[in-house]
Task: structure prediction
Amino acid sequence: MTFFLVSSAIKVFVVFNLIMVGVALLTLLERRVCAWMQDRLGPNRVGPQGILQPAADGLKNFLKEETSPAMADKTLFTLAPIVSFVPALLTFGVIPFAAPLPTRWGVVPMVVADLPVGFLYILAISSLGVYGIVLAGWSSNNKYALLGGLRASAQMISYEIALGMSTVAVILLAGNVTLSQVIAQQQQALWFVIPLTVAFLIFFISALAETNRLPFDLPEAEGELIAGYHTEYSSMKFSMFYIAEYSNMVTASALMATLFFGGWDIPFTSWDSTGDPSLVKTLATLAVFGLKTFVFLFTYIWVRWTLPRFRYDQLMALGWKVLLPLVLLYITLLAVAIWFVRIRLGWDYGPGMAWVLGGLNLVLLIVLAWWLDRGRIVSGSVPQEAA
Amino acid sequence: MTLTVFWIFGVIAMGSGLLCITRKNPIASALWLVVTLFALAALFVLLDAQFIAVLQVLVYAGAIMVLFLFVIMLLNLGRPGPTDIKGPLGLLGATVLAGALLLLLRPLGQAPLPAEIQLPPGTVAALQQQRGMVGAVATPLFDTYLVPFEIASVLLLTAIVGAVVLAKRKL
Result:
């Protein structure tokens, strides 16, 4: 019991600090990558290559004057950043980030809490983040903030459905919701991205919308809403919304790596998952997990500085009229395929089953791309002139 | 330990439930209801029903209450309105009715649990060990009680269609 408590406390401390430092560096990364993509230099003055810029920004936010709108609802106005911040940090707790670490007192699993309900916990807690945004929008007593809050609640509810449904595909294949079990299954054979490619795509798009990132950052669309729900916020309260957004990004990236890309699994070798746990394995798998998460974080930034923002009706139409029917159809097809392979052919999850499902996904992807295109992208958006 | 945790969350659930029905501001009311739902989820965890607890947070706190807030904000009802209890006579009536309800609930606390809903100790733990946390709920739902479950789904579908028809006069 004491061992469990002490190791958990240490893990909580380490994970919390890693996320906070990661988020700080991520803000710098975003600005540098943006600058790089726009052929600029970006912040490079504070410390070598601007590495201390996040610290300077943090200090600035602490020292800035805290404004409080006269007509705002004081309690909710203060509560909103907290409500946004806490769920964003809670969600990382169930994600396993490395192979178990052996210590003198026993083996420590490298996850803060390996809950039996697994990623359902992440879906549940991350669905609470919207309260912060809604309350911020409402309590500011500002019509732009209110519009931002309204948009956020509608958008996050809509895309949560597609997000949850795409994880149903993982449940169907893995037969389990515990993340450590999901990783163990992927270690035996192929990563789930091959048998579940379409689910991964839907998950990725929905995760962009859930974290309010471009091209779905309608709640804070600066061109029309000033800054949306955090228009009235300043100093550290504003900063907390910012940290919440970035730590949601970290969690979403880590979740994508875990559900579809094998978590801390090192590809093409079973050295990391078999045999006795050792310190080298823990460090190596931690590095691989970090790399996978980083790839998705980079993709987030890449998408942000590449695509323009959707219109609000386009956003809603994509969520309800494209993603939701698509994911329902996909789950039905996938359930039939899994039933056929598992019950009729009697296969367990292994390379054979993964490749069969991968082939099915490839066919579905081609059909999907053909349907989404409908003679627009490949043949150009300008209508062909009649001959 | 378990008893202490039960009391903590029980008191939170009762307290926030009371605050939910006594606040005049609809937004505050809705938020206190969210706190109640959380405390109930914690009580579900104490009963070894983590799956139900997560669903409680996911569906009620995460989706339904957000829609509640959405509607309150959209209709701009967020300012304190007049109270429902009108005058001292209404207050007296409410107190009498609440007392009567508590009296009616008293025998329920002392009555033994019916044998039909009591499982031998350890059954749920064994089932969860065998089928997993989600499977323990899924098997009865989609196997033993499939027909009632489907009927409930059709009922919900009817409600949705009805709501759409009422909201959109001409389709």
